[in-house]
Write a structure and sequence with these properties.
Number of helices: 13
Bound molecules: zinc ion
Helix content: 25-40%
Distance between the termini: 25 Å
Structural class: alpha/beta
Radius of gyration: 23 Å
Number of strands: 19
Length: 473
């Protein structure tokens, strides 16, 4: 069985003014050592002959430049064309890409692939669970599956499931039927985590629906809410050989999601920035972690919004670590000034001018990590240690702080630009808060200037009525 592997994976916030460019994508080819890390399970399936083409991945950000998408798509299509005839294609996707001037990037991409590979090749895609799925994407694919955990700890299992389903369908000559229910609900990932109710029980209901025969797989997509495009909603998908069974599975999962729409909550105390800082200052146990959620780069925020920092500098907590502000120019100035130097500069607010402006600070260069492509410095302003990075850098690991000579347990407050805490940060936190801060991924979603999503949609139209409609595609 000749199987190709390709993909373009990113999550695009249409409220972000920072476009995602070609060089924001990391490309993996079959010859790269990274390839085996992405797909270590391939060796378990010796009856498949796998051909890596290109998998392109970019950190969440603003809409992808049309020219960047065109280059990636052309390279993938050209490589796929050369590999024909193919029995199958595994597509390693995210599912919430927005390309400037295009409403349904994945749908467009899959349709172009289908045109290139013809009607007989089976297409199997794995998605995040924050994907916005369209009818067009569903029509072009044969198999689609998605993560079942948020925070995402089943990335590899999901990729493997997409490949396993593909191989099985090829072996047994199955072309699965697909049942698809769009659920008119748009909620942030910070409320729909699978770690607590109701997300946990909603996602746990997937497995009992899958019997491996009539229903071969089922998926719930929460959707990605910071995308002002008509396809933005949650959805359920079931695939298999029995139309009645997949319809029932997709309908049941969708109804459950809808019934719980008003029960989704933030998993931690969510408050204004000032409240979070004040409450953290009163806390005895340390460290207290605060998510500066409105500008979380891993959800598509730009990352250099300075509002939280401005409030911290005003409220003056005696000991706070702030991770981080990407500002290449400020990092260079600190590097030139040298370790220990007193310095006056403007930080952040240069990339996201829609939600911020540069913040003047006067401090001392406390630590320098100059090596590599992403030099980082710690700027100390009174009790506040501000981490400045040359590039947009999510801080998810303890190691990243230790590398900057910051032992998290030794500090009172650590503020990080994240949404829900990833497992490693959660393990460090003695208490945590989610700060409802401004930015492109503001958690107050009904306040965002949506113009193009399909209405009615909950919570934008809170009183709307709905019952599931199954589309067999
Ligand atoms: Zn996600």
């Amino acid at each position: 069985m000749r199987i190709a592997i390709a993909g373009i994976a990113t999550e695009s916030c249409t409220f972000s003014p920072l476009p995602t460019r070609l060089d924001d994508f990391r490309l993996t080819h079959a010859r790269d050592p990274q390839f085996a890390q992405l797909y270590p399970f391939l060796k378990k399936y010796p009856d498949g002959e796998f051909f890596g083409t290109v998998t392109a991945k970019a950190m969440p950000g603003g809409p992808v430049e049309a020219s960047a998408y065109a280059v990636l798509k052309a390279e993938i299509l050209e490589r796929l064309d050369r590999l024909r005839p193919l029995d199958g294609l595994y597509l390693d996707m995210h599912g919430a890409m927005n390309v400037s001037g295009m409403d349904d990037a994945e749908g467009e991409f899959f349709t172009a692939i289908r045109m290139t590979l013809g009607p007989d090749c089976l297409l199997s895609a794995s998605y995040d669970l924050h994907g916005n799925v369209s009818e067009r994407a569903m029509a072009a694919l044969d198999i689609i599956t998605g993560y079942r955990t948020a925070p995402h700890i089943d990335v590899l299992q999901t990729r493997e499931r997409a490949v396993r389903l593909l191989l099985r369908c090829l072996r047994e000559g199955i072309r699965p039927r697909k049942a698809f229910v769009k659920i008119p609900v748009g909620l942030p990932g910070e409320m729909t985590s699978t770690e607590w109710a109701p997300g946990r029980s909603i996602y746990r209901a997937i497995e009992p629906e899958v019997d491996g025969e009539r229903v071969m797989d089922a998926t719930i997509q929460v959707g990605y809410v910071w995308a002002d495009e008509p396809r933005m909603t949650a959805c359920t998908i079931a695939i298999g050989i029995d139309i009645a069974a997949i319809s029932q599975a997709a309908r049941r999962l969708a109804q459950r999601y809808w019934d719980h729409r008003a029960d989704f909550r933030f998993g931690v105390e969510a408050r204004s920035v000032d409240d979070c800082i004040r409450l953290a200052m009163q806390e005895k146990d340390q460290p207290v972690l605060i998510s500066d959620a409105g500008d979380n780069p891993t959800a598509g925020g730009v990352g250099d919004v300075t509002y939280f920092l401005e409030r911290a500098l005003t409220l003056q907590p005696p000991d706070l670590v702030y991770a981080s502000i990407p500002d290449a120019e400020a990092v260079q100035r600190c590097l030139r000034a040298g370790l220990g130097a007193a310095i006056e500069l403007e930080i952040g607010g240069k990339l996201d001018r829609r939600h911020a402006s540069p913040l003047p600070v006067r401090g001392r260069v406390n630590f320098i990590k100059a090596d590599g492509e992403n030099p980082q410095v710690v700027l100390r302003v009174d009790g506040i240690r501000i981490i400045l990075t040359a590039r947009r850098t999510p801080f998810h690991y303890r190691r990243q702080l230790l590398d900057l000579n910051i032992k998290p347990e030794a500090h009172r407050i650590i503020a990080v630009k994240v949404g829900y805490l990833v497992p490693e940060l959660n393990a460090i936190a003695r208490r945590n808060f989610l700060a409802l801060s401004p930015g492109a991924v503001n958690q107050d979603i009904t306040s965002l200037p949506f113009k193009r999503i399909t209405r009615p949609c909950y919570p934008f139209d809170p009183d709307m009525k709905w019952s599931p409609r199954v589309q067999l595609i």
